[in-house]
Amino acid sequence: MLVTGCFRCIKYSLYNLLNEKGFCFKNSVNFFAEKLHILQSEIIAVGNTENDLTMVQYAGLSLWLDNIDPELRHHADVIAA
User: Fold this and answer.
1) Average pLDDT, stretch 52-80?
2) Radius of gyration of the chain, Cα coordinates, nearest whole angstrom
3) Which phi and psi (to 5°) does residue 66 adopt?
4) Which residue, 49, 59, 3, is CA-closest to 29?
5) Among 12, 37, 49, 71, which residue's CB has the most CB atoms within a 10 Å radius?
């Protein structure tokens, strides 16, 4: 439950505030991981657009949704249908 709550918090509530200060998804995830003492290797990132690329590259386990641009597919560990 904590992980789900953190993801929602990052993705929907605080990301906009952090983005205004120059953060990207990767930096936002890193910020909260440090605050919550979560190792980079324990982070799972799910992306579906190019703006998720840095987050997907940063995560310990990365997943693209199936609709991702074919040129970006090689950046993730898993492609989900």
Assistant:
1) 92
2) 12
3) -60, -25
4) 59
5) 49
